[in-house]
Automatic annotation (TrEMBL):
It comes from Chaetomidium leptoderma. The keyword Membrane applies. This is Uncharacterized protein. It comes from the Eukaryota. The chain crosses the membrane at residues 94-118, 124-145. Keywords: Membrane, Transmembrane, Transmembrane helix. Gene3D superfamilies: Magnesium transport protein CorA, transmembrane region (1.20.58.340).
Amino acid sequence: MTKYLEELSSLYSPSSLEAKNADRPPHQAGPSLRRTGRLIKDRLGLLVEELDDMIDDCSMRVDGMTIATQWSQGDTTVDIATAAGRHSSQMRSIALVTMIFLPGTFFATVFSMTFFNWGSQDGAIVSSYIWIYFLVTVLFTAVTLA
């Protein structure tokens, strides 16, 4: 737009108008064309300002959308972090329960094998060596949890 304004100014400058309208009487050629040129130039200047305002408005809207998108992504990131924290605490609970019960289950399985001869006395259902199971189980559970 500015290029056209400059071209219009140079095309209708007073010196070029005088050269073009040399055969006309001086009172008819100059003032009306200068006035028309000035009006056109003023109107084009207003249009340029209006377009600049519209461009600024569009830029603000795009920036606003960018900020809204970043805000939404931030909220989503917070939600993901919260869910990961809950998942982590649940996994710690499962691991703790596993560490408590795994040694006991292992030694119960080992001691139930037939290669141990725990001869029963007087028809006892539980062997007198049951203390070995509890001792080893508690010891290994403590080592596992430590």
